[in-house]
Amino acid sequence: MISQSIFKLITIFVYMKTYHFPVVVEIDEDGIYIVSCPMFKGCHAAGKTIDEALVDLREVVEMCLEEQSAENVNQFIGVREMEVTLPVSA
Questions:
Q1: Which among 56, 57, 50, 51 has a CA at the least distance from the CA of 31?
Q2: Most C-beta atoms within 10 A of its C-beta, which of 5, 10, 80, 89?
Q3: Where would I find the beta strands (DSSP E) of the chain?
Q4: pTM of the model
Q5: Residue range 26-39: mean pLDDT, rounded
């Protein structure tokens, strides 16, 4: 017979689901990496390395998912580049 604690552990693994979210990576003027998940409003983190920033961002995403389900997040369309021309001062 399976003990109750093992049954709970098995139940947890059965109901786990993995999600994949896009991440935007930037670096600021001080060399700090800023990572953002555009699927959630205000979902940003920063770190001295990309990996450090991503660890923190994972925690932020998990908090966002506690507030709303993954099925109800913003729809990520993609990243585009745009050209802007400014006058050059002499």
A1: 50
A2: 10
A3: 24-27, 33-36, 44-47
A4: 0.72
A5: 97
